[in-house]
Amino acid sequence: MRECFEIRDTDAGGRIGELAVPRADVTVETPALLPVINPNLDTIAPRRLAEEFGAEILITNSYIIYGTDDVRERALEDGLHEVLDFPGAIMTDSGSFQLAEYGEIDVTTEEILEFQHAIGSDIGTPVDIPTPPDVSRDRAEADLETTQERLEVAERVETGEMLVNAPVQGSTYPDLREAAGRHASETDLDVFPVGAVVPLMNDYRYDDVIDVVAGAKRGLGPATPVHLFGAGHPMMFALSVAMGCDLFDSAAYALYARDDRYLTVRGTRHLEDLEYLPCSCPVCTTHSPDDLRRLEGDQREEELAAHNLHVTFAEIRRIKQAIRAGNLLELVEGRARAHPTMLDGYRTLLDHADQLERSDPVSKGSFFYVSHESARRPEVIRHHRRLERLSVPDSLLLTEGDPPRADEFDECWRVEPPFGPFPRALSKSYPLTAEVPDRTDRAALEAASDGVSRLVEENPHAEISLAHRGWPGDVLECVPERVDLIDIDSAGDE
Ligand SMILES: [Zn+2]
């Protein structure tokens, strides 16, 4: 485990952790949001971010400070904490974003890291190459090589107690992201931003975001703090946390406010379209939409920014509580309903259920089956794997209810969609205590029949019968042929 990072609790790929930031002498609880502060104009003062919103950490751009004479002199003289008036931890970006936007910057990794150290940054960043999505593989590999050389340079720069970011690039090639993650985790750098995902998010490509993060996580391993760089919309926090992201930075709260846009966990609304404010933060309980519209420009921007931040921090707290309670994936399922592209993101997350299963706790509160995607959750995969290790008698009845002829078998196990078969003794253990709807869906039946097949294949010599409640023919066709099928519902009518 990284010395600066300790994991306290997990749920799916999500975790509550503690990031120790020695230079600031603070410990940041993750998942954490870092509001982005533009050193030249703050919409909401950093002191207020700490005191009113509970921000423990923020991020600002050292390249802008470096390039702005008066701010640079003050930062070098008084230190960043003094200039910004912020009591928590301060992370600084390096100018890589400007590099991506404008094609060049006039500073090296050594210079910018030394500068970040000199102005009192707590977590610094080298100048990596943010490779955009969908570039040729040759370019992605060449860029990645440059980024990796810079991480090696960063390791050699004298930065004292300052933590240093090791960005993970690789464009939209999951295997390059994985290789980049592995390389980064082998350096002695501290925090791991997954970079250049902003263009994907701007295009609503949440499925690709998840594949990119999953790749990076495979290389980084579980013990590293991961920052989804540039992700500031609360709509996608739950999904990203479930894939293993710990840190987010939001410029969105201020940028959207400037444009009269109002953030919600289900997406963005334009102030001009709102007749009601669906929020109970201090801004929304003391203003009507008309009140907000009547405010002067700057004041309206500040009120909207404050609302946007309240919503964003509230979602982070909700996610932490969901991790504690063990129902993070149910929160993700709910959030996925906000937009079809979010649903794509959630379905892609479930493509990585195997990867999530490794950090998912063996026991939690209770599994709620709330959509057909629930059939693909890591708990179902784990149960199917467990079926391979259970010992099976010579003749076994698997049944969904009270079947006829149960006494003809050595043992009788239950069958519950989506898990499939299990001995009655396990009925009270997680996740088999799941709450499932009475109106079962196809995905749950298919998952249950996969479980039956798994058990049958592992036990070629056992005689196995399946008593089901009217499963459709094509689901039953997936069950191995040698299983004797009994339809409980129609057996009663004979
Ligand atoms: Zn509000």
Automatic annotation (TrEMBL):
The coenzyme or cofactor needed here is: Zn(2+)
Upper classification of the organism? Archaea, Methanobacteriati, Methanobacteriota, Stenosarchaea group, Halobacteria
Give the function comment from the record: Exchanges the guanine residue with 7-cyano-7-deazaguanine (preQ0) at position 15 in the dihydrouridine loop (D-loop) of archaeal tRNAs.
Q: Which UniProt keywords apply?
A: Glycosyltransferase, Metal-binding, Transferase, tRNA processing, Zinc
Q: Where is the active site?
A: D93 (nucleophile)
- Protein name, per record: tRNA-guanine(15) transglycosylase
Catalytic activity, as annotated: guanosine(15) in tRNA + 7-cyano-7-carbaguanine = 7-cyano-7-carbaguanosine(15) in tRNA + guanine
GO CC, any one term: cytoplasm
Tell me the residue numbers annotated for binding substrate.
Answer: D128, A196
Which residues make up the binding site for Zn(2+)? Answer: C279, C281, C284
Q: Which PANTHER family match?
A: QUEUINE TRNA-RIBOSYLTRANSFERASE
Indicate whether tRNA processing appears among the record's keywords. yes
Q: Does the keyword Nucleotidyltransferase apply?
A: no
Gene3D superfamilies membership? Queuine tRNA-ribosyltransferase-like
Q: Which InterPro entries match?
A: ArchSynthase1/Queuine_TRR, TGT-like_sf, TgtA, tRNA_ribo_trans-like
Residue intervals of the tRNA-guanine(15) transglycosylase-like domain: 13-340
Pathway given for this chain reads: tRNA modification; archaeosine-tRNA biosynthesis
Its GO biological process annotations read: tRNA wobble guanine modification
MF terms per GO, please?
Answer: pentosyltransferase activity; zinc ion binding
Enzyme Commission (EC) number: 2.4.2.48
- How many cofactor units bind, and how? Binds 1 zinc ion per subunit.
